[in-house]
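Possible regression after last week's pipeline update?

I re-ran a chain I had predicted before the update to compare outputs. Posting the input and the new output here so someone can diff against the archived version. Not blocking, just want to make sure nothing changed silently.
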Amino acid sequence: MPQTKLLLTLLTSLTLSAELALPPLAAAQTTQQTTAFTITGAVVERDGSPLYGVIVRAGNAKTMTNAGGRFTLTLATRPEDGRQALTLSAVGKKTQQVTFVEGHPLRVVLEDAVGEIKEVVVRARPNINALDLRARSGVVAQVDMKLLAQKPMIDLSLALQGAVPGLTVVNRGELGMKPEIRIRGNNSFTKGDAANEPLYVLDGKIISPQAFMTLNPLDIREIKVLKDAVATALYGVKAANGVLEISSRRGVSGPMSISLSTQAGVTLRGRQTTTMMDTDEKLELERRMQVTTAPGYLFSPDFISSATLSDLRQSYQSTLGIAPTWTREEYLAYGSRQLDSLRQIHTNWWHDLIRPNSYQSHNLSLRGGSQDVTYYVSGNFSRQGGQLEGNDTKRFTLTNSLDWQSRLGFVSLGLTGGYAKTNSPNSSDFSPQQLVYELNPYETKSSTQLFSYPGRKYSDLTGQFRRWTKEIRFGTSLSANLRPFEGMQLDAVLGLDYVLNESEQITPATAYSEVTRRRPIERGMISVGKNTDFNYSANLRATYQRLFAEKHDFSISANTDYYYSEGRLLSVTGHGIGLQEYLAGVNKGLTSADLRPDFSGSNATSAQLGFGLATGYTYDKKLDLFAAYKADASSLLPRDKRWNTAWALGGGLHLEELLPFLRGGSLLTGLGLKASWGLTASLGGITSASAVPIFSYQQSSFYADQYRLIRLSTLYNDRLKPEQLKSVDLGLSVQLAHAHTLDVNLYRRDTKDALIMTDIPASNGFLSMLDNVGSLRNEGVELSASSRLLSGEDWRLSLRAALAYNRSKVLDLYGKTALYSGDNVYPDYEVGRSYDYVYGLDALGVNPLSGELMFRDRQGAEQSFGKTIVRDDLVGIGYRTPPYTGTFGLTFGYKALELDAQFYYVFGGFKAYSMTYVRGVSDVNKNAIAGQVSRTWFALGDEDRLYPNPRAGTQTFNNLSHYPNTRMISRSDYLRLSMLSLRYRLSSSLLHHLGDVVKYATIALQGSNLFTLTPYKGGSPESGTYDLGVQPVLTLHLNLNF
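New output (post-update):
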C-alpha cells in the first residue's frame, strides 16, 4: 500500500508540474523542438485487429504500441530526408523492417512467426504438444489475456469465469477456497474434482490445480482451453476432461525493459444473500410462536395475562436468571418496558459483521537479451482481505525463464516459485458468518445477555477458532526445440512441480466451547496437517514436416511421455494445549477416545507411461486432416488392464479458399468447417486402492471390540474398468470483412462404463465399492461472436458475446432404471433424466383450515407433508446445474482513453430455498428470514401461506428441509458485471517532458464482480446456500514501462 501511494503521488506531482511548466519550457526550448522528429503509426493483425505490446525501434530509441495498436516515437533530431527506418518485433510475430516518411502515419500488418506453409520457424516452445496441426481441426479456445489481466482477483482460477464458452468456474465460498472448474460439464457419475477436473499444463509440465490457482496472470502469455478429442489426443488418457494449457512469458532480443505494475483498492461486502427480520417483525414472530425462551412472547401481555404467577416466575428464572415475586401488573409493566427498550435497537448484523477490506497487487518484471540468449524475470506480491474478520490471503510469486538459441534451435529453462498464506476464522462446524443470520436485530455486541445464544455474550462467539494454511510451490522445466535438418523437429521437455501445503487449526483454551465442556487439563485443541504434492513429467516428441509441389503439406509426429505423481499427507490432532498453542503442548495423558492424540497419514503414488503417433495433412490451405493415437499404461490398474488408449480423427475445410467465387472477396473473408471424432479412456475417478489391494494401519476396527494391525484401505474391485469417453464435434467459423466473426461448435460426448461408489452389504466389512454402473451423455452448443465496429485513428469500438449450452442425460444404468444411495427415496441418477436432476414434492400450499402443508403425489392424490415420504411421492422439478452460461462485453476507445466491460450470465437452473433460517418453535430464539410472519399459518382462516403451522410436528419440518418442493424452489439465474476497466495512456510528449525515463505508462480504474443481479432469494445463486459469494474488488492501477 505505501508503495502504491508513493508512486501515485509522484506521478501526479510530475504530471501537474509538467503541465504547469509546459508553456515556459516550450518557449525556452524552441530551437530544440524545431529539430525534433515525431513518428506515429499503428500495428495490426492480419484481420485488422490492433496489436498491443509491439516493440518499435528507431536506432537506440524505442517505444511500445498501446491497446489500440498505436505508437508515437519522438527522436531528438530530424533526418535530413524526413525518412526513418524502423524495426517492429513482437513475441510470436515476424520481425519487420519498415520506413517511416514524414507526414505519412504508418499502418503495419505483422504476420505470425509460424504461418506460411512454405516456412517453418523454430522458436522456444516449452509446450511441445502445442502443435499447429491439431488446432486446424480441433477445438482450441484461447483466453483473452488482456481482459484477464484487467480483473483484480487474487485467484487465477476464479478470474477465468466466463473467459471461454464451455469453461465453467463456480465459486465455492470463502476467500482462498479452490473453485470448481469444468470443461463441458461432468463426465462421470462420480462427482467431485478428481473425476471431472481438467488437466493443467504449464510450459509442457503437468501441475496441480493448487499450483494453477497461485499463478500470476501477468507472467502468462497465453492460456488455451482444449475441449475435444483432437485437441487433447496428444496428452492421452490424462486429458479426458480437457486441458488448460498455459504458456509463460518469454524474453525478447534487445535492451532490458522494465515493467512495473501496481494496483491498490478495496474489496466490498458484495450482494446480501438474503434479508433477515428487523426488530418489530422478529418480536411479532416470537409472540406468534408462543415460546417463552424468546422475549417477544416472554414479555408480551399474551403470556403474562394467561400464565400463572408460578409459571411466570419459573419462565423468568430459566430464561433470564431471575425469580421475581411480582404481581401480574408488575410483570406487565416490566415486560412493556423491556419490549419498548428492545424496539429501540435495530442492529444490521450483515453491515456489522461483513466488512469491506483492502486489495493490493504489485508486479515487477525484466525482459531482454541478445540475439542468442533472452531472459524474463518477474516477481509479484498480492494481498486480498476477506469479508469476515480474520480471513485474508497473501501471495508471493517468482518467475524466471531463459532461452538460448543455437544453430539447431532453442534450449529453454523455466523456474517458478510461490508462497501463499490464507487465514480463516471458519471451522468445520461453525463460521462467524452464521452470526449474520442468527443474532437478533434487538441484540448488540455489548448486550449482556443474548437470547439467540442463551448464557453467552457476543465475545463468547468470536475468536473461538482460527485456521491458517500455507502453500509453498516450486516448479522447473527444461525444454529443447531443435531442428537438426530441413523438415525435422525434435522437442523435449522435463518438468517438476512441487507443492507443500501446511495447515494449523486451533480452538483456544479460552473458547466458550472449551470452558463449558472440558476440564482445565483438557482445554485447547490443535490440529496440524502437512500435505505434499509432487509431479514429474517428461515428454519427447519428433515431428517431420514436408511440403510437396507447393500444395501438399504433410507432417507426422511421434512421442513418448512419462508422468509420475506422489502425494503425502500427515495430520496430528491433540487436546489439552492450554495456553501453549503449539503441537508440543498437547496433553499426551488424555486417553479417552475423543481426547487422545490422533495421528493419520497416507502416501499415494502413481505412474503413467505413454506412446503416441499423430499425423496431419494440409492441401493448399484449403483442406486439413488430422489423426492421432495414444497408448498409456497406468500403475493404478491391474497388469491385465493397465494399457488404455486415446485416438482421434479430425478434418477442416477453408471454404473461402476452396470455392472460387469466395476467394479474394472483401465481404466473406473467412468460412471454415471442422469435424472431429475420438475416443479417450479416463482414469479420473480411479485411485490406487480402487482396483488393487492397498493396506493401511489403523487404530480402530469395523468390527466391535476387535483390533487389527492393518486392513484394506477400501474394498477393491478387480473387475474395474476405466471410463470410455467417445466424442463427436462439428464446428463452423465465419468472418466478414476481416472485422466480424462467428464461431459455432456442436458436440456430443458419451461416457461408457461410468464409475460411482455403490452401496454393498455390510457383511463385506465395507459399505461401498467403486464400480462401473452405466453410461451418460453430455451434449451442447457453443457460440462466440465478435465485431469491430470502429477502428479509426481516434475512435475504437468492438463488441463480443458468447453463449454455451450443455445438457447431460443418463443413458443406461446396466439393468436398472434408477440408482439410489442408502435409504434415499429419491434417485441419484435415473435413466432418461439429467445428470443432476432435482426431485421433490409437488406442493399444493397450506390448508387454511388445518395449517397442514399439502402436496400432490404421482397418482394425483393430496397428501400431508407430515407423512413418511416414499418414492412415488416425488416428481421431477428441474436442473440443478444451469445449462446456459455466457458473456457479453465491449471495448471502447477514444484516443488515449479505453473502456473495457465484461458481463457474465447464467440461466436455466433451479435451486431449492434453504430452510436453515426459517424458524420453528425449537429455534425461534434466533433471527429468521424476513417475511416469515406474513407467510406462516398461525390461525384458522390464514390463506395463501407458504409455511405450515409451527406446531405441525417434527416429521413435517424434517420433510420440508430434506425434500425440495415446487413452492420453495426458484430459478438460479444471475447476471454479473465480472470486469470493468477504464484506462488512460499518458502521452509520449508528456513522458518526454518527464525525461524519457518512462517509455509507456497507463493509469486505470479496474473492478471485478462489481454487482450480481438474480431473482434467487435463497442465498447465493451459485451454491444455493447462504455463503458470502464472490467479493467485489475496485482498484486503481498504474502500469509503467521503462
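Follow-up from reviewer: compared with the archived run. Residues 36-113 form a domain with the Immunoglobulin-like fold (CATH 2.60.40.1120). Marking as no regression found.
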